[in-house]
């Protein structure tokens, strides 16, 4: 088993791209960028150059490959990319650890934001933050039920 690189935004984005392609099927770069923007919206860390650099790296490492071409895009067309078998293996090997680390980071950020909003008296913002956390929790619960329908999720997830 290959050792995982140090936690970095690029490493997380690489795994997020692979996860998107594994779950959504072939996508073009701009669609991947827009989806990552929505996933990482709170952190505002995603840029087109980061996403396209990561896509290029993944393609060079044969973790993704071209899967066709979409005609009629403003630039004349867009290449569709799909995850390869090697990419699926990479995601299976490193994905769990990355998402656990990312989850821990998000918990710290949410706790810090909540404490700051409480200190400055931004109770409306605090309520909005709580609503976002509840919404994310519900999405994760539904994914867990889909993946583990017989048990409704594992004890560790509940």
Automatic annotation (TrEMBL):
Q: InterPro entries this protein is in?
A: Tscrpt_reg_PadR_N (IPR005149), WH-like_DNA-bd_sf (IPR036388), WH_DNA-bd_sf (IPR036390)
Transcription regulator PadR N-terminal domain: residues covered? 17-92
Lineage: superkingdom: Archaea
Q: Per the UniProt record, which residue ranges are transmembrane?
A: none
Q: Which Pfam families match?
A: PadR (PF03551)
Alphabetical list of Gene3D superfamilies matching this protein = Winged helix-like DNA-binding domain superfamily/Winged helix DNA-binding domain
Full protein name: Transcriptional regulator PadR family protein
């Amino acid at each position: 088993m290959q050792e995982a690189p140090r936690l970095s935004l690029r490493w997380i984005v690489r795994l997020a791209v692979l996860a998107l392609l594994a779950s959504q099927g072939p996508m073009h770069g701009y669609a991947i960028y827009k989806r990552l923007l929505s996933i990482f919206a709170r952190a505002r860390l995603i840029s087109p150059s980061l996403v396209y650099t990561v896509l290029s790296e993944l393609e060079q490492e044969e973790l993704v490959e071209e899967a066709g071409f979409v005609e009629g895009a403003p630039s004349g067309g867009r290449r569709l990319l799909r995850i390869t078998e090697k990419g699926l293996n990479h995601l299976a090997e490193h994905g769990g650890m990355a998402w656990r680390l990312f989850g821990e980071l998000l918990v710290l950020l949410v706790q810090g934001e909540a404490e700051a909003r409480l200190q400055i008296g931004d109770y409306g913002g605090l309520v909005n933050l709580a609503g976002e956390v509840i919404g994310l929790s519900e999405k994760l619960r539904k994914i867990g039920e889909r993946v583990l329908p017989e048990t409704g999720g594992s004890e560790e997830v509940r």
